[in-house]
Design brief:
The structure is a homodimer.
Chain A lengths: L1 E12 L9 E9 L2 E7 H7 E16 L1 E6 L15 H16 L2 H17 L2 E6 L4 H11 L2 E8 L10 H14 L6 E7 L7 H14 L3 E5 L5 H9 L3 H7 L7 E5 L5 H10 L2 E4 L1 H6 L7 H6 L3 E4 L12 H16 L7 H7 L2 H6 L17 E5 L11 H7 L6 E6 L2 E5 L2 E2 L4 H14 L12
Helix pairs in contact in A: 3-4, 3-16, 12-13, 13-15
C-alpha cells in the first residue's frame, strides 16, 4: 500500500483530456498537490492508503474552472450602474467611482469578495486586470486561489499610477515580488488599443517576449473602436497590434465582437487566443463574438465573466451555459459549442492561453490537483443522461460542493476553508455604506 | 386591532405596479388568500393582529413569477437530447420518446418534478401545453401552484388522442372538470401552424371566443416554417392565423423569432401577446426575437422557459436575466429591456396575456397573495444598489427563500410545504432507470 495525501472518489469524473470522456466510479489520487493517479475506485482502495478521503456519490469532478477575464477589485461596484452602453458606463459611472474610491484597501476588500464568489462557484484560477494588482495577488495567494495578475498599463493617470512610466515601474516591481507568491503568475495588461498608445504597446511586446508572459487586452470590444483606430492609425486595432509584434501565441484578445475574415485569419495564423465574454458583451450591447467561426478557424477560445459591474456575477458555470446557448443562435447552428466544448473553453483552452496547460486545465496524472466537484442530485439537474450536458445546461453555481487548488481544499461541502466569510462580508458592507448608495438608485421610492 | 391571517415584513417590496417602485421596510398583509394591505411595517404591527408572521430582513418581495410557456410533463426528458436543431431534436428524439413513454403517469411524475423546480425558483403560475393535460392540472392543484392548462390540439395522433376530433372531445371534457380545480384555468393550445390544419384552427378561434380563454401556439419559431407556410397557404403563418380570426388579445404567440415589419404591426394592431423564450430559442438556434422592436410597437411581451428538454431548466430568474442581456445585444442598445422591464415580463405582462391581470401579476391591494421572497444577502448578490437590478442581474434560483400562492405557503425558507420531495425524486429515478439512458449518452466511457 502506497501512502498518499487524498483520495477523491466520485460517481463521475470528466477529465476534459482526453476529449469526450466520462469515467464512472473512478477516483483521483492526490499527493503533494498533484494528481498521482486516476483509476477505478475499487483499485484505488487496494493500491493506496490516504490521510483524507472524499466519497462524492452523486457528484461529477471536473478540472477547476478558469475565469480568463476578471477585474476582481471591482466587486464592490456590482450593480453600481446597469442598463448603460460601454462608453457611458465607463466614462460616467465606473471611472469616476474608481477615481473616488480606488485604493489598495478597496481593491483588496473587493478581491476578497470576488475570491469567495469564485470559489463558491467552482473557479480555481482567474486571469485579472486591474489597478492595485498587488492587492488582488495577495488576496488570491491568501485564499488559495491560483491567479494570473495583469500588470496594467493605460495612458491616463489613475489612483494607482500617474504616468505611463509609473505603470511600468510599479508593474515590473510587482513582477519581481511574485516569487513570494507560488500561486501567482504575471501577465501584461494594456487596457485597450484606444487607451494605450504605440510606445507603451511596443515596450510591452518586447517585455512580454523577454519575460515570456501573456498579454491581455480588451480588443475589438465594440464597433466604435474600429473606425476610430482606422482614422487615427490607418489600421484596425488588431492590425495595429500586429504591426507592433503583439499578435502571437502570448496574446489573449479579450471580447473580439467585431471581426472580419481578415481578423480571423490573422488570429488563426499567429496563434493568438480569444477570450470570449458573452454575458458582458450582451449586457453592454457590445456585439456578438462569432465563436463558431473562430472554432472553425482553429483559434483557441477561452471564457471570461468580465467584472461584476458588467455581468453581474463571476459564475463560470453560468458563463459556460451562456456561451453554449448564444453561440448556437449566432451561428444559426444548434450543434455549435456543444456542452463538451463549453467545458473545454473554461478549462484546458484557458490553461493553454495562460501558458499553463502542462500544469492545469485537465484532470491528468502529473498535473496540479485543481478540482471542482458538482453535486448533480438536485431537482433542477435530474435526470442525468449525460453529466457534461447536465453541468453546462442545468447545473448552477450553488451545486458546486467542493473545490481544491494544488490539492488544498478551499470549499468543503459548501463551507469556506480559507476565508472568514462573515468578516469579508462585513468589510464589503462598510464600503457600501461609505459609498453613498442612494445616488445610484434610479427607482422611485414611495 | 384587526385580526388577519398573515403579515410578511420585508426589507424591500417591489410591487411591480406602480412602475419603478421600491418600498423599504414595508409589510404585506394577507387575509383569506388576498392582499389586504401594503403599508410600512411600523403601521402594520399597530393596525393588525395576525396568526402568522414572517420577518424577512435581507429579502425582497416580488409578485410570484409567471412562466408563460412550459411543457411540465417533459421534465423526465431534461438532457435527453442536446445540441440539436429544432426539427432533428423533435423528430428524432423527442417525438419518439413521447410515443414510447407518454402516459398519464409519465406526465404526472414529470409535472410533479416540474412543480418542485418551479416552486423552488420562485414561480407561482405557469402556462402549460402538453399531452395528458389532466395529469398536469391535478399536480398543479395538489402542489398549490396556479396554472393555465392548454387543451392541446395537433393533426397527428399521440398517446393522448388518435384524431383531431378526439383532441377536442378530451380537451372540452377536461375543461368541464376544471370547476373542481380552483387554481386551474384553461387555454387552447394548438401546437403550431405546421402541425394544425385550418379546420381545427377555425374551430379553436370560435371556441376561444365563446369560452373567453387564451390561445397558445408556437409561432414563427424558426425560419423554415415561414416559406413552408407561404408555399402551402400563400401566407405567412401569422397572416394565416389572422385570416382565421385568431390574431386578437386572446392570442399568446410563442417564440416569434422571425418577424418582419408587417408582422409586428399586425400583432400591435390586434393586441396579441408575444411569449419570448430566449434560452430555448438560443439552444435550438431558432433565431432572435426582436424584443426591443416589439416593446417600441407597444406589444405586450411575456417570458417563458419552454421545457427542460430545450432550456434545460424552469428557472424564471435566469430567464429574466437572459432576456435582459440578450435584448440589449440584439437591439444594439444597452438600455433595452432594463431590469425593471424584465421583471414586468415575468409578472404583470404575463398576467395580462393570461387574462388574469385583475387578480395576479403585482403586489396590489385586492389581488391574490401570490408572492416570491428572494434573499439578497449572498456573496453573489452584494452590494445591493438597486434590488430590482440585483434580482435580474445577480440573484439565482437558490436565493428564493419563500413562495406563497393565494396566501398558502409552498416554500418556507427553502423547504417544500406541499411536496414530498424525496418521493417525487424517487418516482423520477424509477422512470429514468426504465428509459434506458445509455442510448442517449454520446460521450465515450473509458
Amino acid at each position: 500500500m502506497e501512502h498518499i495525501d487524498e483520495i477523491i472518489s466520485s460517481r463521475w469524473i470528466v477529465p476534459v483530456v482526453p476529449d469526450q470522456t466520462i469515467l464512472h466510479d473512478y477516483a483521483l489520487v492526490i499527493h503533494q498537490g498533484k494528481i498521482l493517479d486516476l483509476l477505478p475506485q475499487a483499485d484505488a482502495t487496494k493500491k493506496y492508503q490516504c490521510r483524507q478521503s472524499y466519497h462524492l456519490q452523486e457528484h461529477v469532478l471536473i478540472p477547476g474552472l478558469i475565469n480568463s477575464h476578471t477585474h476582481a477589485g471591482m466587486n464592490l461596484l456590482r450593480g453600481y450602474a446597469d442598463d448603460k452602453p460601454l462608453m457611458d458606463w465607463l466614462q460616467n459611472y465606473i471611472w469616476p467611482a474608481e477615481q473616488k474610491w480606488g485604493c489598495d484597501e478597496f481593491v483588496a476588500d473587493g478581491s476578497l469578495l470576488a475570491a469567495a464568489e469564485m470559489i463558491q462557484s467552482g473557479t480555481t484560477c482567474f486571469n485579472d486586470m486591474y489597478f492595485f494588482p498587488e492587492a488582488t495577488a495577495r488576496i488570491a495567494q491568501n485564499t488559495g486561489l491560483r491567479a494570473t495578475i495583469g500588470l496594467i498599463v493605460v495612458d491616463f493617470p489613475s489612483n494607482w499610477a500617474s504616468t505611463t512610466e509609473e505603470y511600468f515601474e510599479k508593474g515590473l516591481q510587482l513582477y519581481d515580488t511574485f516569487g513570494q507568491y507560488p500561486l501567482i503568475n504575471a501577465s501584461f495588461a494594456p487596457h485597450a488599443p484606444y487607451t494605450v498608445s504605440d510606445e507603451p504597446l511596443k515596450r510591452i511586446a518586447a517585455l512580454s517576449h523577454e519575460l515570456n508572459i501573456p498579454v491581455n487586452i480588451h480588443l475589438h470590444e465594440t464597433l466604435d473602436e474600429i473606425p476610430q483606430s482606422q482614422q487615427q492609425y490607418g489600421l484596425r486595432p488588431l492590425e495595429r497590434l500586429d504591426k507592433m509584434g503583439l499578435v502571437n501565441p502570448s496574446l489573449m484578445a479579450i471580447h473580439m465582437t467585431q471581426l472580419n475574415a481578415n481578423d480571423i485569419a490573422l488570429l488563426a495564423d499567429k496563434g493568438a487566443h480569444v477570450v470570449h465574454c458573452p454575458e458582458s458583451n450582451m449586457k453592454l450591447a457590445s456585439g456578438f463574438c462569432p465563436v463558431a467561426k473562430l472554432v472553425d478557424a482553429g483559434i483557441n477560445i477561452t471564457l471570461g465573466t468580465d467584472s461584476v459591474a458588467s455581468n453581474n456575477d463571476l459564475d463560470m458555470i453560468g458563463e459556460m451555459r451562456s456561451a453554449a446557448l448564444l453561440a448556437k443562435n449566432v451561428s444559426g447552428n444548434a450543434e455549435s459549442v456543444p456542452a463538451e466544448y463549453a467545458l473545454r473553453m473554461a478549462t484546458i483552452n484557458a490553461a493553454r492561453a495562460l501558458g499553463m496547460d502542462s500544469t492545469i486545465g485537465s484532470l491528468e496524472i502529473g498535473k496540479q490537483a485543481d478540482i471542482t466537484a458538482i453535486d448533480l442530485n438536485n431537482i433542477a439537474t435530474q435526470p442525468v443522461y449525460n453529466p457534461i450536458a447536465t453541468i453546462v445546461y442545468s447545473s448552477r453555481a450553488e451545486h458546486v460542493s467542493h473545490v481544491w487548488v494544488n490539492g488544498q481544499i478551499l470549499l468543503n461541502n459548501r463551507e469556506f476553508c480559507t476565508i472568514d466569510i462573515e468578516s469579508a462580508i462585513k468589510k464589503g458592507q462598510i464600503w457600501f455604506d461609505r459609498m453613498n448608495p442612494e445616488k445610484s438608485i434610479p427607482a422611485t421610492q414611495i
